[in-house]
Amino acid sequence: MAFQPIIDWNQKKIYSHEALVRGTQGESAYSILSKVNQTNRYQFDQSCRIKAIQLASQIQIPALLNINFLPNAVYQPETCIRTTLEASREYNFPLNRLVFELTEGEEVQDHNHIINIFKTYQKYGFLTAIDDFGSGYSGLNLLAKFQPDLIKLDMELIRNIHANSVARKLTKAIADVCHEIGILVIAEGVETVEELKVLVDMGINLYQGYLFSKPAFESAGEIQFPSL
């Protein structure tokens, strides 16, 4: 695993760390995920949870821990959670610091399945998030049926947003709606001060991206807060 911080801009502190799968020699997420198929998806999903919690405990991640999950790997949420509970106890990592992110790039035909997963996670006290919001198959339709604790705006919306008036209007509209219904917004993939200025002016407070910190292999990494 590599870990990349999500920062709270107003308080100038770390809000969370996202666990990002890597190879044992630091190989990219793509090289690992490309080997996931129908036969090993469930085992892969469970192994990632365990490893993320184990390493987060070892390197003393100071805040929340975001773990991505593959919705098509979760058949019975209660069964999947059992592994999470066991890992949390074994490695002494508090359950109330876990955030489960739905990877939106994986197609799921049954929204009721996703909603059941989210509701089960929330019942156990986990926070829930939709990753890469706007890039996949769920989007606003899912948001109308279930409201997670957080959404992460897809980086394609964020890239060069200062020079794209349509992207600015769309992002502002999503951020305003989320604020009204009590969902926190994370802008991911922020790489430049120009992008950050636009997003801060929109009232977005949580950020993830190379401007603040790159993913660090089996480490919490270092962060910086640029001047605006």
TrEMBL record:
Q: Which Pfam families match?
A: EAL
Domain EAL residues, every copy = 1-228
InterPro entries the record matches: Cyclic-di-GMP_PDE-like, EAL_dom, EAL_sf
Organism superkingdom: Bacteria
What is the protein named? Answer: EAL domain-containing protein
